[in-house]
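Section 5: illustrative case.
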């Protein structure tokens, strides 16, 4: 019995047992993680204005939470892999940022979201922002990251549906209501509506992406190598560099007047190269520590944005620090857990022989 992990008592163990019994809830709560880490929705409101915080929490759970649950269900029920997840993540990006918040189209968002959000506005579309959010941020950070964390935290859920058919129907209704409600609210606050032409374009693009996700090969992004060829530290640094290039690189280029088309091509290029690099080096099995490190790298860049962006909130920083520590603790737990499992099975670190959540097309 000495090779087994010591059972935890205390509320942490009880909380873990609760979420293992309710994995859909766990995934739903993970889904808006990047929204809070970056400060796009300020966690400091929990202390400074609780009703405001819980109103936005409900909106984020209705938007991010339901979308991620539905995308994971589609992946499992259709028998697809991560290519399908990324395509559906792009479709969600259009629904969220195009139909709902309209940030893909509003030419007046620069004062709220920064210069990159409206840079390259042409034919009614903010092309640089659209490229960044639809093709990278939402597919990778809003959708794939929480799904991956669920599989690392609860490997027993891999390939298993979390929602019944009835729950899926209700989730689809909820996601549609959330998008329409956001559209109305944003229109009232910012006095901007994209109009029928752009909404029709959104609907067509979403439909095309969903069809592509349904028909794409399940093994399209299956890692070619059986085991990882990069160490966890390399994966961590890679994720930090990639996220930094996507966020700070595009902002810097826009601020210095680089041609919008070149910025969009830059984002497409680094996104494609990053995806190919991960697929090439992550391996199909024994890659749990690499995957935890990859997630940690994404968090490491997102976390300071929200932390320093909310320093002015004073006592509100209690909530910010608390949330940041909660996410760091989750990553630390996953790292220790998978190292322990590998050690208990006598597998040389940092490789392992567990089934890979990325390598398995389910």
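Designed sequence:
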């Amino acid at each position: 019995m000495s090779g087994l992990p010591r059972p935890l008592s205390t509320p942490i163990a009880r909380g873990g047992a609760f979420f293992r019994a309710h994995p859909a809830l766990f995934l739903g709560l993970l889904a808006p993680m990047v929204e809070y880490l970056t400060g796009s929705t300020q966690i400091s409101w929990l202390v400074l204005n609780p009703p405001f915080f819980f109103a936005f929490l409900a909106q984020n759970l209705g938007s991010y939470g339901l979308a991620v649950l539905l995308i994971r269900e589609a992946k499992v029920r259709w028998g697809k892999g991560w290519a399908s997840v990324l395509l559906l993540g792009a479709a969600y990006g259009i629904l969220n940022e195009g139909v709902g918040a309209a940030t893909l189209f509003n030419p007046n968002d620069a004062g709220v979201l920064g210069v990159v959000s409206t840079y390259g506005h042409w034919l009614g579309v903010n092309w640089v922002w659209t490229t960044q959010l639809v093709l990278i941020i939402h597919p990778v950070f809003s959708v794939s990251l929480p799904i991956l964390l669920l599989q690392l935290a609860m490997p027993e859920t891999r390939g298993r549906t979390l929602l019944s058919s009835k729950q899926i129907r209700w989730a689809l209704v909820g996601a549609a209501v959330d998008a329409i409600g956001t559209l109305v609210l944003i229109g009232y606050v910012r006095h901007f509506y994209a109009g029928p032409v752009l909404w029709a374009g959104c609907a067509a693009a979403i439909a095309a992406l969903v069809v592509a996700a349904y028909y794409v090969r399940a093994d399209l992004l299956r890692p070619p190598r059986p085991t990882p060829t990069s160490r966890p530290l390399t994966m961590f640094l890679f994720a930090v560099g990639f996220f930094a290039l996507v966020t700070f690189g595009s902002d810097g280029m826009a601020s210095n007047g680089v041609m919008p088309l070149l910025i969009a091509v830059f984002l497409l290029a680094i996104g494609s190269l990053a995806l190919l690099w991960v697929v090439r080096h992550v391996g199909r099995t024994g890659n749990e520590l690499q995957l935890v490190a990859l997630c940690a790298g994404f968090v490491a860049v997102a976390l300071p944005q929200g932390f320093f962006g909310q320093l002015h909130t004073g006592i509100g920083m209690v909530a910010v620090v608390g949330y940041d520590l909660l996410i760091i603790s989750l990553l630390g737990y996953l790292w220790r857990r998978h190292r322990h499992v590998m050690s208990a099975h006598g597998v040389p670190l940092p490789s392992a022989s567990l089934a890979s959540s990325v390598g398995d097309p389910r």
